[in-house]
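Hello forum,

I keep getting stuck at the same step: I have a sequence, I want structure tokens, and every attempt I make locally crashes halfway through. Rather than fight my setup again tonight, could one of you with a working pipeline run this one for me? It's a single chain of 146 residues.
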Amino acid sequence: MCPNRKNEKAQCSRDFSHQSGIGLPAAIFVITLMAIIAVAVNQLISQNAQTFEEELNLTRAFYAAESGAGIVMNTVFPPEEYPGYASTAECVSMEREYDFTVPGLNQCTATVSCTPVMIGTTNYATIQSKATCGDVERTVQVRTVY
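Reply #2:
Ran it on my machine without issues. Output:
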């Protein structure tokens, strides 16, 4: 490229100063792109973790509401009084609250009410159970004849 002559040395250094390359801008672009991808992946993982926690609490709330309805069904229709429910079943219009402590439903509460309705000569009991786990809520409603 540049011969080792004394008179051409100035010209060789001038040629090197005017050279430019793509290496440094490409490296900066790649590093910036990788940083953006890392931030996007981090946000995606964070969103997935929040969604998973919400889904878990929704499932827990559903089972807590179902358990609350089941508890009240056992009070309306006590198993030991089977098959005489026609004369012994009673739906008391009172709201009850249950705090669950079993694994899987701990820190969940269910508020359950039983509303008696008579249509014609038929007695109906509407059991509504509203459960809360964390910041999510689920409701289960059961209607039965007694």
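The chain has one domain: 25-145. If your local run keeps crashing, start a new thread with the error log.
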